[in-house]
């Protein structure tokens, strides 16, 4: 493992950290953290089903109860696995969507703990073992990358927005190691400009900053590229002492008068500027030129 405090020159030019097999003490920590975490998820799903049925009867497509409930479940899961969680900033009010940097499967818990959101993910994610359960529980909105379906998916997005859902997008299009923000894809912001979207619509950028446990690789919580999910989950659960994650909610950006390119640039700038590792890396690159 790399020494704590070491900043690498990039996320793609180095292989991911290697996670060895947990020893006896590691497996004990896995059981101590994993069993309560799974129990919270199972109990949460059991309670969530009747709550959603009640919402359909009295609130239609809105989620006035289950949104905050899932938020509470995610906070409990983070507490069970020992990952310290803090946040700053205020959740947006009024119609809107959320965009964030994407570092790990832990984002499902960390970002939902900050505010009730509904993730937007590619349709393939619905078939990933383990992750598909989490996405179903959090009512993830799946999309297919097919230009022929763009109009239909934009209408679905607008319908969920009108229902008061906060859809959360990852404009990077993939996950990184958590040290950097990858370039945003402006095309993903086109859906925000659909004619059916309310004029008061705004986008709230969010930065999730993961701090690795002392002595571990700074990329410890990152899950990207071809990394296997199982070993990474075991590594996170078996580490002697957990690190922490801080979620920063930036001021919302109104879409009125903006283009997909300007929305992408403004969101990326806000998220990137709050990631200390990314800022340090850019400063190092500029000094080396």
Q: How is this structure best described in words?
A:
This protein has helices at 24-58, 66-81, 107-114, 131-137, 150-162, 229-238, 260-273, 276-288; strands at 84-88, 96-100, 118-122, 141-143, 167-169, 202-211, 244-249, 253-254. By secondary structure, the protein is an alpha/beta fold. The chain starts with 23 loop residues before the first helix and ends with a helix. Mean pLDDT is 84; it is low at 1-11 and 285-289.
In short:
With 289 residues, the protein is of the alpha/beta class.
* Number of E-state strands: 8
Poorly predicted runs: 1-11, 285-289
User: Strand share of the residues?
Assistant: 5-15%
- By oligomeric state, this entry counts as single chain
Q: Helix-strand pattern, N to C? A: HHEEHEHEHEEHEEHH
Number of helices: 8
Number of domains: 1
Helix content: 40-55%
**Secondary structural class:** alpha/beta
Radius of gyration: 19 Å
> Can you summarize the main beta sheet?
8 strands, mixed
Shape: globular
C-alpha end-to-end distance: 29 Å
Average pLDDT for all residues: 84
